[in-house]
Amino acid sequence: xxxxxxxxxxxxxxxxxxxxxxxxxxxxxxxxxxxxxxxxxxxxxxxxxxxxxxxxxxxxxxxxxxxxxxxxxxxxxxxxxxxxxxxxxxxxxxxxxxxxxxxxxxxxxxxxxxxxxxxxxxxxxxxxxxxxxxxxxxxxxxxxxxxxxxxxxxxxxxxxxxxxxxxxxxxxxxxxxxxxxxxxxxxxxxxxxxxxxxxxxxxxxxxxxxxxxxxxxxxxxxxxxxxxxxxxxxxxxxxxxxxxxxxxxxxxxxxxxxxxxxxxxxxxxxxxxxxxxxxxxxxxxxxxxxxxx
Length: 293
Known about the structure:
By secondary structure, the protein is an alpha+beta fold. Helices cover about 35% and strands about 30% of the residues. The chain has helices spanning about 70-80, 105-120, 125-135, 140-145, 180-190, 195-205, 210-215, 220-225, 230-240, 260-275, and strands at about 1-20, 25-45, 55, 85-90, 150, 155-160, 165-170, 215-220, 245-250, 255-260, 280-285. Strands 1, 2, 3, 4, 5, 6 and 8 form a seven-stranded mixed sheet that branches. It is globular.
């Protein structure tokens, strides 16, 4: 039996815009995604001689064939045309789920990276991204974790300048947001503002963190804020603690603030934790570095 280990990194959306419903049932999106150091730990046992299984440290997350990590392994071996003779995936969950942080996609991508490394890089990154797209729209981004503009379903990736050094305070309310329902609500409403994605790309090139903070915007906030005023309180609390900008990531419900200094970020995280929120502190993940920043 062979054991592989891999980290699965969360992401935040600096901008996220949603277009009209397409004929295939998907929506076109335009979003800038940044990988962060909050990560799950993935362990894969290959050659177990037993039926495939997925074990997760969080009971609320489904195992077996419904888990994206399982689907990723199956997609990989289907594409490779080989059989691992039994496989077990263990997930130590640190990324909150149903939060907009891409935890399931990150797990799937980590499985694909680990298996491909084990198979002597049978597939190129581009080929691996195509396999990942069969599993989920965010999986291609999570395979390489390069700061990118994602378009189409999320599979059309254009690398952009990464975020400058900063800290993220992530705040998870007690509720989750069903993604399909939010898309339906967006289809029915007049969205009051749209993110200036191309301007954000230029701002990233300048590296001005204050301007980046001012440009954060996610259209999924609008239908969710109507129903959960609590999100306003989280935003205000982050700003009062010195956040240079706040937004929601993905389809929520995690809100995040960006901070230039660790001390301010740590104080914000502790302040919100003391009033009952689950908070997480992270910085940018650099895929070209062997260590987390």
